[in-house]
């Protein structure tokens, strides 16, 4: 993947860019995609629309009244089953280094490939990732997801920007609309647009200003309004003093349909819903951030998330409860290392009706764990410890086992 593009060349945003073609979106597999479009990007995103006193977008289809008696009772439709509804504005926030970008990458890959988000059904479709920083690190995170999930990203409709946007700058924001339209013409309407992070893509304004944040939200709405069922998901930092809320003006939370906070302790990552506007709030989700060898020779590593769902939550102070026994933890670490490294897996359906996922021969995984533990002659004690570890891992829903196959649950 090429990450050597100059930041001021993104979408042709500098003063000289108007005389040469704008930069294009790039697929996460490194291929550049054509950026032609016959779409009308609409009014500049920083302008007030005719008849409006503020920056809010025109209602879809124009303003009118309808009879309440004629309203349809439609059940909620989800982009990710039970987590994120379609046609909405979402926010994921947390402290720096908490794993929120790993979750954003996981969501992007899961939706673009249709692989599902840790067992949850997704609405598959094109995904645009507006990356404000860390392009080389982001490339490694995409590759780590690909290797851990054994799901190729080559050819998937997943595209990242070559650098940040500036959504409070009308020209920059309009360039995003134009380029998103070009990708939609080529690959279909996006179902998800990720803005990572708000700070890096905000533009000339103050996050603490209600007026500026409202302008940013209006820009997100105008981007989303181009595509009927699209979700715009914003990755944001938590407050400096108040870690349980997003940084800056509360206008962002007020406008959001869905909001999550990410909390991290060691390699344990927890996703908590702090707002679900029109559906039941989901339970907390717990993940393990596991290392992934990208080249097979330990020379380059990144990480990806594995859902643990073990009932051991990360407390408000960041302390885990109910840890596994040391021996069982060693076996669990060995299993994660097997699936995240060079262990032999096969993408298959473990049981009828289940989704395809990386599965391994249970004896191969056991032998790998024994080698990591320093077991040279497996005794009855070693076999009993392995059996007890599997029992606990099954009870905590960390793994699944059927026949001679084992997988990460």
UniProtKB/TrEMBL annotation:
Limits of the AAA+ ATPase domain: 86-266
InterPro entries named among the record's database cross-references: AAA+_ATPase (IPR003593), P-loop_NTPase (IPR027417), RepA (IPR038724)
Annotated SMART domains: AAA
Region (Disordered): 13-60
SUPFAM superfamilies linked: P-loop containing nucleoside triphosphate hydrolases
One Pfam family from the record: AAA_25
Protein name: AAA+ ATPase domain-containing protein
Annotated source species: Rhizobium leguminosarum bv. trifolii
